[in-house]
Amino acid sequence: MANNDLAPTDQAGVSRRSVLKWSAAVGGGAALVGTGAYFGVLPGVGAENAVALTPSGDDKIVWSSCNVNCGSRCPLRMVVKDGQITRVLPDDTGDDSLGTQQIRACVRGRSIRHRIYNPDRLKTPMRRRPGTKRGAGQWDEITWEEAFDEIATTMTRLIAEHGNESIYLNYGTGTLGGTITRSWPPIDTPVARLMNCVGGYLNHYGDYSSAQIAGAAAYHYGGWIGSNSFDDVKNSQLQVMFGNNPLETRMSGGGETFVTQQAKKLHGVRTIVIDPRYSETAGGIGDQWVAPRPGTDAALVAGLAHVMISENLHDQEFLDTYCLGFDEDHMPEGIPAGNSYRSYIMGLGPDGIEKTPEWAAKVTGVPARTLIQLGREIGQARPVHITQGWGPQRHANGENQARAIFTLAAMTGSVGLPGGGTGEREGKFGLSMANPFRSKNPVKTSISVFSWTDAIERGEQMTALRDGVRGKDKLDTNIKMVWQYAGNALTNQHGDINRTVALLEDDSLCEMIVVIDNQMTVSARYADILLPDVSNAEQLDVIQQGSAGNMGYAIVADQVIEPLYNCKTIYEMMTEIARRLGVESEFTEGKTQEDWVRQVVEESREANPELPAFDDLREMGVWKIEGPSYIGLADFRADPVANPLATESGKIEIFSKPLWEMAQTWELPEGDRITALPEHLSTWEGAEEARTNAKFPLQVIGHHFKQRTHSTYGNVDWMKEAHPQVVWINPIDAEARGVANDDLVEVFNDRGRVQIPARVTTRIAPGVLSIPQGAWFTPDAKGTDTGGSVNTLTSWHPSPITKGNAQHTTLAQLRKA
Q1: DSSP code of 95?
Q2: Which domains does the chain have, with CATH numbers?
Q3: Separation CA 465–CA 447 (nearest Å)
Q4: Is residue 621 a contact partner of residue 556, using CB atoms and an 8 Å limit?
Q5: Model confidence pLDDT, tens digit, residues 265-278
Q6: E strands of 533-601, at which residues?
Q7: Quick check: pTM over 0.85?
Q8: With contact defined as beta carbons under 8 Å apart, do 439 and 574 qualify?
Q9: Dihedral sign for Cα atoms in the order 74, 273, 21, 728
């Protein structure tokens, strides 16, 4: 069979039924055992008689990897016969010990062949047919030369007419971990390197995953620190996880699933999971599940703080020494009395409300007796390992939610100690890898990662005080051209898809959209020019590790097969466009892609002398090193004077004077607030409004899902069958609407409507719906999304401080279809 005729069936003859059984059995991937055999069912053999399929003598095995945005990076051994990938095997090195573990790919990585040989593969350059709307699916095939010429000509015109700020690199994380094949952050990408050769581009700050928490950390800690690594839980008396779900979001041996499960198995540390949803992590390692209403974590923390203060269970000595703003004796100069966190909690602040457990119970839905039990348990345990995932911060009050959890960590006095943590997401031991390919952007202006649609619509009106523009007081131009490389945030992962689509259809605003991808994603539908990228199996790169506790590693992902169809590498594409713009020598520096990859390894060996030379690493496939546990702020804890933080005071700022000043100067939309303390804020479409909104009374969140990483793998048949898209609904809410399990339902609000089956389950809090995020937007003739993308329902309204994507702050209604 020719390469261009390959279909997404199991070339090795393995039954799909067996794969589903295997997928369900391994769950997050950490249960996969053995030394790399592919366990399946031969044709005509029942699942109960499964046998191990090992490569035959004439097969070739080539090391590659799965490079999607899951926080992990997993090596894969691809079996090749007659130029085709016939099987995908996991890492066969390492063991079952923390720090030297086998990096066992999860169910997604093991199905990667069905991405490489997918019917949705882009095969040749295409241009939107003249006179048709973006998204209409009307394309004309063009040559690579035509595509490169048109892009270079349009770029030259737009830069001359509007300046370099008119060209924007949109957020995209479809390929991460590599050096040449890296789609984020923008400065690391080949597209950015090209743009920097011709004057730069409009940049973005933040990311869709963690905009609010990263921004909050800048005011609280002076920048991102990271909490202690999960392997360090061995030194903890208690582990508390706010919306942190590594068993789904950090799957595999190259992620945190293995680390957290092994730590629990070996040390048995009591674990409390705080999440509106009974996640895989709550079920897998949790001892207690606490289910607050979405967007109320800061209120929950306030209730815990009241218990700890009232019963003297907080670490006052730590707060006095290392923190600013906890009590009235430790406040910045010039701040009126009553503005400390303790005053806020005890009802002595401007609002006059005492944040008792009973008050917090009304806001969060968590019983007061549970809050009292939690406050006492957290207050009496030392040290406490507190972490949070990205869920609590992806709200309209997300910055305050994140800072409240940081503050709880400080109240325990566990910051900077083994077994403790900062309250941020878990950190890791990691190799310091060089990146000589990175270049410098001459344009200093940037916008929030979530506000590019605003910049297309009204860029010239966007200012620093109203819209968070950085680098200057205001934008001088609207966005006129968008690059979307290996990402689906042009539509599918952005808020309010219907509104976004309507914006993109108007090509008088954004004049050119170039999408570089290897799949016909939802975003690719709205391109003007489509450039077909190769998959990672069709090119060479060196892959940096994911988050894996105290293990560091590097992978050489070799070229496994020749590029399929008429596809090119991103490096080839940008080189050709650079040639037309007269900057080829500046872009390539006379180097091939392999030259750059070799340089990465050789320069990285300066900081990591044990790292093998490139040719040795290429032969090995993956190299691992056991490192120490990561302890966030250990130096600061040891000597805060010699090792001050990058905050204004050099301390942990529970009260932030910069935020105090911003609250008085920034221009905010109605309903938005900035506070110097991590207060609970009632928001638009938040928990309080849900209880009074008769039209849309249900809060909607979008949890991460083992079927895909964001939208990547969302079109793989194996994964869709193993983990179908459903909406989670509590039995109380289902009964009130006459909905039974597996009923087809519609979830809707004024922004859009999705139609998917219902999963009636007590694993979701009452009043809350959860739709797994990342499903591909698939509207029918009436505009109802039958693919089940949660962003059909979300909005463009950002959070107040970082202008981040508040996509978990959404109200809707559900009814039987």
Answers
A1: B
A2: 1-117+534-567+590-620 (3.30.200.210), 126-208+435-533 (3.40.50.740), 212-429+633-665 (3.40.228.10), 687-816 (2.40.40.20)
A3: 12
A4: yes
A5: 999 999 999 999 99
A6: 541-544, 551-557
A7: yes
A8: no
A9: negative
